[in-house]
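Recap slide: Cytochrome P450, sequence and predicted structure.
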Amino acid sequence: MTALAQKPLPDHVPAHLAMALPLFARKVTYDNPQDVLIPQMHAELPPITYVTNIFPGDQPGWLLKNADDVQAMLRDADNFTKNGMGKWAQNIGENWLVIPTEADPPVHTGYRKALNSHFAPQKMFAMKEQVRERARALIEEFKDKGECDFIADFSEKFPIFIVLDLLGLPQERMAEFLKWEKELLHSNDWEVRGNAVRSVKNYLMEEIEARRVAPRDDYISKILTFEVDGRLWNDDEVLGHCFNLYIGGLDTVTSLLGNIFNYLAANPDKQDELRANPSLIVLAVEEFLRAFAPVTAFRIATKVIEIHGQTIMPGDYVAFCSPVIGRDPAYYEDPQAIRFDRKAPHMSLGSGIHKCLGMHLARLELQIAVEEFVGMLPQFRVKDGFKVPYFVGNILHVPDLHLQWG
C-alpha cells in the first residue's frame, strides 16, 4: 500500500513514519479507494504518519488517522494556523488570504460575523425552489434518454449554476470556469495551478470593479458593503472571499455528488429505500457526507507540538483527510456500512471556528439532487460495460460516471 520516502527527511521525522501513500497519488485508479485504500490505511497505519506526497506538488505533511485527533486539531487555533494554508496567493507571488478559510482569530471572528447571516439556514432555505428548478431542468434534459453522463450532464453543472446565480456571474462562461477550477484543484503542477489562480483572480477583480462602478442585486455587490473592525473590507479581502466561493462552490458538491451517485447506482436497494420513504433523505445526506467526503484540508503548526509521541515542528503541515476520518472504525461502528439511521456526527463540513461557511447550501443542494433523481427517474445503475474511474488526491472524486435506467 505504501512506498518509502525517497527525499531526505527533516531531522525530527523518523524514517519509519515517512512514506508516500497511494490515496494522494493524484491519478486515476479503477479500485474504489473508499472500499480498498482507506480500510487498509486504518488497518495498517500508525495514528500519525509523515506523508511525503500529501500536499499538491508532492509536498509533505503529517496525516492524522483518527477522528478524535483531528477534532482536537480543528478546535486548536492557538497551535495550528490556516494562514496561507492553500498557497494560492503565494504561488503567484502575492499575499492575500482566502476569506474566511485562511484567516485566524481574532480577525476571523470579524469576517464570520459579517458573513454568517448571509449563509444562515433561513437564507439558504429561501433558495430551495430556485435550487430545485435547476436540478429538475437538468434532469429533464436526459430523463427520457434512458442514460446520462452524470458528471457532465448533472453534477458539474448543478452546483455551479447555483453559485453563479448567487454571485451574479454569467452562466454562459461555465465551461471556462470549469477549466480553471480543474486546473486549480486537480492539477499537481504548480505552474498550471498558478496560471489558473491568475486567471480566476483577474476575472474576479474585473467583476468586483464593475460592481464598484455600478452595484447590482447580487452577492458580490453585497460584499463591498461588509465591514470588519469598523471599516469596509479592502480589495484583497473582497477578492479573497470571492475566490473562496469560487473554489468552494465549483467543486466540493460536484465531487460529493459523483461519489454518492456512484454508490447509489451500485446499490439499487438503497435507491428504493429513499424512493419509498423520501423523509429519509435528510438523514441519508448526513450519512453520505460522512462516508463520501472528498476533501483533504490542512493546518500549519505554529509551535512545537507533540502528537502520539511525535514532535511536530512549526511550519509543518498537518492534514485533515475527511475521506479517512469519515471511515474511522475507532469512531464509527462498522464505518463501511451505509446506514440511513446512523445519526452519527461527522466532520466532513469542518469543525470548530472554521466549520464550512456554505454548509447549509451544500446540504440543500445534496438533498435536492437526491430527491429529484430518485423522484424523477426509475432505478438507475452504472451503464453496462462502463468501468468507473476514481481520482485519488486531495479531492477524492469520480471524474466520469455513466448511468442508465429502464
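Residues 100 and 108 are 6 Å apart (CA to CA).
The mean pLDDT is 94.
(End of recap.)
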